[in-house]
């Protein structure tokens, strides 16, 4: 089974200061290929949620396949949304018919 893709998007900022790493609302990162561009503090918080979603888990009170979390920097409080972008139940052949 292919691992689902994970996308992390900055959806809001609640704190009074801009992000020390330069992230802006709307920035989006592919977890597998761009996670090195994501702030290490946010990545530290995101990682357990990524694992839960990638391996088929769900979080109480969240839409299926998603998790919303906040950066731990109290001056910034960036809000991120993690999304599983490939469904777990997608056909192995991508839904392409062989006929």
Count of discrete structural domains: 1
How big a fraction of the residues is strand?
Answer: 15-25%
Gyration radius from CA atoms, angstroms = 15 Å
Query: What's the N-to-C terminus distance?
Result: 23 Å
Largest sheet: 4 strands, antiparallel
Helix and strand element order = EEHHEE
> How many separate helices?
2
Write down the overall mean pLDDT.
88
Helix content: 10-25%
β-strand number:
4
Oligomer: single chain
* Low-pLDDT runs: 91-99
Described by the principal axes of the CA atoms, the overall outline is globular
- Strand order in the sheet with the most strands: 2-1-4-3
Based on helices, strands and strand pairing, what is the structural class?
Answer: alpha+beta
Question: What would the keywords be for this entry?
Answer:
disordered C terminus; 4-stranded antiparallel β-sheet; 2 helices; alpha+beta; 99 residues; single chain; globular
Explain what the structure shows.
This is Putative repeat protein (TIGR04076 family). This protein has 2 helices and 4 strands; from the N terminus they run ββααββ. 19% of the residues lie in helices and 23% in strands. The longest helix has 15 residues, at 40-54. The protein has one domain (6-84). The protein has a 4-stranded antiparallel sheet. It has helices at residues 31-34, 40-54; strands spanning 6-13, 28-30, 66-70, 78-84. By secondary structure, it is an alpha+beta fold.
Layout of strands and helices, then pairs:
Blueprint: E1 6-13, E2 28-30, H1 31-34, H2 40-54, E3 66-70, E4 78-84
Antiparallel strand pairs: 1-2, 1-4, 3-4
InterPro entries: CHP04076
Organism: Intestinimonas butyriciproducens
Protein name: Putative repeat protein (TIGR04076 family)
